[in-house]
Design brief:
Length: 151
C-alpha cells in the first residue's frame, strides 16, 4: 500500500468507490476495491488533488469563489480529477481483462453462473471504455477473444 495523506486517501477512496459502484457482479466489485493497490501514479494524483482542493478552499475563504485565483485552482482540481479517473480506468481495464479472459485462479472458487455474469459484465465494460482498454494494452486481446475485433 502506498503511503498517502488522509485527504489523498479520501480522494482515492471516493474514486475507487465510484468504480466499484459501476459493477453489478460481486466478483468484479470485489476486484475493484483493491484496484489502486501499489500504484504510485494514483498516489501522486491523489496528493495533488487533495492539495489543490485544500488550496481552493483557502482561496475561497480568503478571496471568495468568484475570484480568478479560485477559478484557476478549481479548474486544476477538475483536470487532475479527470486524469486520476483515466488512470483508474486503465487499472479497471486490466482487471476486467483478467476476468473477461478467465485468467488466474479466481474462477476455481466461484460458481459457473457468477463467473459467466462477471465475464459478460467485464466484456461490456471494456467495450464501453475502449480508450482505457487500449491504454492498458488489453483491447486487442479482449476483442479477439470474443470475436468483435475492431482494429
Amino acid at each position: 500500500m502506498v503511503n498517502r495523506s488522509y485527504r489523498a486517501n479520501k480522494v482515492v477512496n471516493d474514486a475507487v468507490g465510484d468504480r466499484v459502484d459501476e459493477f453489478e457482479s460481486v466478483l468484479l466489485e470485489n476486484r475493484m476495491h483493491t484496484v489502486d493497490d501499489g500504484e504510485e501514479l494514483i498516489g501522486y494524483y491523489a496528493e495533488a488533488i487533495a492539495n489543490a482542493q485544500y488550496a481552493a478552499d483557502g482561496v475561497d475563504d480568503q478571496y471568495g469563489w468568484r475570484d480568478d485565483i479560485y477559478s484557476v485552482t478549481d479548474q486544476a482540481v477538475d483536470s487532475l480529477e479527470a486524469a486520476l479517473e483515466d488512470v483508474l480506468d486503465v487499472l479497471v481495464a486490466e482487471e476486467c481483462a483478467v476476468v473477461a479472459q478467465r485468467k488466474g485462479e479466481w474462477t476455481d472458487r466461484q460458481d459457473d453462473e457468477a463467473v459467466e455474469a462477471a465475464v459478460h459484465e467485464a466484456r461490456e465494460w471494456l467495450q464501453a471504455h475502449e480508450a482505457a482498454a487500449k491504454r492498458a494494452g488489453v483491447w486487442s486481446e479482449v476483442t479477439a477473444a470474443d470475436g468483435t475485433r475492431t482494429e
